[in-house]
Amino acid sequence: MFTCVGYSSTSPEAPLKPVSFERRDCGPTDVQIDILYCGVCHSDLHQARNEWQNTMYPCVPGHEIVGKISKVGSAVTKFKVGDLAGVGCLVDSCRDCPSCAEGLENYCEKGQTFTYNSEDKVSGGITFGGYSAAVVVDEAFTLRIPDNLDLAAVAPLLCAGITTYSPLKHWKVGPGQKVGIVGLGGLGHMAVKLAHAMGAHTVLFTTSPDKVADAKALGADEVVLSKNPDEMAAHANSFDFILDAVAAPHDINAYLNLLKRDATLCQVGAPDKPLATNVFSLIFKRRNFAGSLIGGIAETQEMLDFCGQHGITADIEMIRMDAIEDAFARMVKSDVKYRFVIDMKTLPTAA
What we know:
By secondary structure, the protein is an alpha/beta fold. It has 2 domains: 2-159 and 295-346, Quinone Oxidoreductase, Chain A, domain 1, CATH 3.90.180; 160-291, NAD(P)-binding Rossmann-like Domain (Rossmann fold), CATH 3.40.50.720. Helix content is 23%, strand content 26%. It has helices at residues 42-48, 98-101, 151-154, 160-170, 186-197, 212-218, 229-233, 253-256, 279-283, 297-310, 324-332; strands at 2-8, 17-23, 30-40, 65-72, 84-87, 90-92, 113-114, 134-138, 143-144, 178-182, 201-206, 222-225, 239-244, 259-267, 288-291, 316-319, 339-343. The strands form 4 sheets. Strands 3, 4, 5, 8, 9, 16 and 17 form a 7-stranded mixed sheet that branches. Strand 16 (316-319), helix 11 and strand 17 (339-343) form a beta-alpha-beta unit. Helix 4 (160-170) packs across helix 5 and helix 4 (160-170) crosses helix 10. The chain is globular, with a radius of gyration of 20 Å.
């Protein structure tokens, strides 16, 4: 074991503060990553504040991790000291259920191990995330980072990138398709970039007129103001696929009505209240309303490689570690374009 410094919350009301805790030493198949950057996901805020009613304290958030390998276990074959590496939302799974056998560890049927706030099957206790100086991860759950991309802007790809890439790939988005993206936040801005790079005619839906120019600059072919009934009606029955990245309560039926027959709307934003669905909208056009959760390790690596080939990263604002509470407050107001990333050089050397 070794002592690691991080930022932790101890209760729903407590602000994140410096803390020291123990990390396991490298086992035979482990790598130790010294963390350079960690993205700030809305999930971090949900967990720190126990908004999903499942937080185990103390909680060290962070699952968009980019760093450099400082140690490797004796049996490691995929990485060496000095390599750039990333860790996303998963650090382990059962590895033998049908989903894991298909490379879909994100849907592990016996329970995946998340990067933080999860039962640590190796060391016991709780997993601690990337708001810290270092992390130790099995090489099977460690990702190679393209060396042609800005490292800080790569960090959000480990969650926001794969969360949007996976459904776009699963539903075979590509040239000749008309694809809608609902919401231009941390997830939505990545979805626009990815759908455009995949060759689809990409339409961004937003409630904010001041996001029109941004959306087009990010790759949207069209922008629809969703509060304008005429603009919405003009797209009825015309979409092959819609990806909904909005995490607040909203009228899902307005978008279901825009799908072609047999087309799919996939929800990746996670509102805290159920979305009421008009089943007749589904029945009369044989439409599909689906969901998707991040991606498996192989698909996450595929996403990173795709982003490397196409020069895709997140649009970020860098912050100091001690500015995390201010970043959380701004994130609630959607006051970021479009993802905060922590420069881990600003982490204290001792708690």
